[in-house]
Specification:
The chain is α+β, with helices and mostly antiparallel strands. It is built from eleven helices and nine strands. It is globular, with a radius of gyration of 20 Å. The model has no long low-confidence stretch (mean pLDDT 87).
Length: 325
């Protein structure tokens, strides 16, 4: 028994969930520039922080509510399957393995979060003869055995997203995506668990990042990784707004133009900090409070936050201008 879906191209970019969504849409024949998928899904505008500011600022912790919000904007339908370690793991594993096979048999890939490398990928095939799953990710195609896949039970959670083509994409999908991004920046997560555990979202995530740096509690490798992810995401956000303003008359607005400029400024501030922290390998070292690079880092990070606020101020003004009387 073998199930294998061909013609899946993961695309490029730092955000692996965005890459998985883009690859899924392309597989279904829904063609968007990658930056537009990042914008429609709100991933280009998001920022999340764990309590220790670990290198996962683009991870979606409020996954269930986020999927419910973005699925109609992408023309997809998602079912989420979360496996947690414990006494019921074997039963959940068997049920999920069956669901994966059914999805592949129906011609649908499976989006999978790999906790070993902290990246999203696509399961696009399975061989019963060798008990191997075929994966497509940012670094190309690979295979892992079923034993290797399910050995992830030592992770707190295994996330599987089962996509299929959904209904017609709403005519105002781009407007809805900007509203979703604005809500995320201005609001706390609706997930009580993550809120009480000290996770931060949107503007609060920037504040946590800055305050943790001031206290010497930010890992140097994590800082460098998050800087790269944020810069890449805001470049996608800028390209998304450029795409809208150049192709859709209703987005030819001074508010959108100013937001594009603010996003460029955010990227430039982040790039200056990246030049100070060139770390390619994991280190346990935190950025110390007496690190000579810290004053400039804080100055530029606070500048980036101001540019973020200005970006969303402009988007809010644009969205208000589009409300019909």
């Amino acid at each position: 028994m073998e199930r294998y879906l061909e013609n899946i191209d993961f695309g490029l970019g730092c955000n692996t969930l965005g890459g998985a969504l883009w690859a899924t849409l392309s597989f279904y024949g829904i063609q968007y520039p990658r930056s537009s998928v990042m914008g429609l899904s709100s991933l280009a505008f998001r920022l999340n922080m764990t309590p220790d500011c670990s290198p996962c600022c683009q991870t979606i912790f409020d996954l269930e509510s986020w999927l419910a919000n973005v699925s109609p904007l992408l023309g997809l339908h998602f079912e989420l399957d979360v496996l947690t370690a414990g006494n019921e793991f074997d039963k959940m594993r068997r049920e999920t393995a069956t669901a994966i096979d059914k999805n592949l048999q129906s011609g649908n890939p499976v989006i999978f979060f790999d906790p070993l490398v902290y990246e999203w990928c696509l399961i696009n095939g399975y061989s019963g003869d060798t008990d191997e799953y075929y994966l497509t990710a940012t670094d190309g195609e690979s295979t892992i055995t079923g034993a290797e896949l399910w050995d992830r039970e030592n992770s707190p959670m295994l996330w599987f997203i089962f996509p299929r083509k959904g209904g017609k994409i709403p005519e105002d999908s781009f407007i809805q995506a900007l509203n979703l991004s604005l809500t995320h920046f201005r609001s706390e997560t609706p997930d009580r668990y993550f809120r009480e555990a000290g996770y931060a979202f949107g503007e609060s995530a920037w504040d946590l990042w800055i305050s943790s740096l001031k206290k010497g509690k930010v890992n140097e490798y994590g800082l460098g990784t998050n800087l790269r992810l944020v810069r890449s995401a805001r470049e996608d956000a800028r390209n998304f707004l450029l795409f809208l303003s150049e192709n859709l008359p209703e987005f030819k607005s001074g508010f959108i133009g100013t937001a594009i400029t603010c996003l460029r400024n955010t990227g430039e501030s982040i790039s200056r900090i990246e030049d100070l922290f060139v770390t390619s390998a994991w280190t346990d070292d935190c950025v110390k409070t007496d690190d000579p690079r810290l004053p400039k880092t804080l100055e530029w990070l606070e500048q980036a936050l101001e540019h973020e606020k200005q970006t969303f101020d402009q988007l809010e003004k644009y969205l208000s201008s589009q409300v019909k009387e």
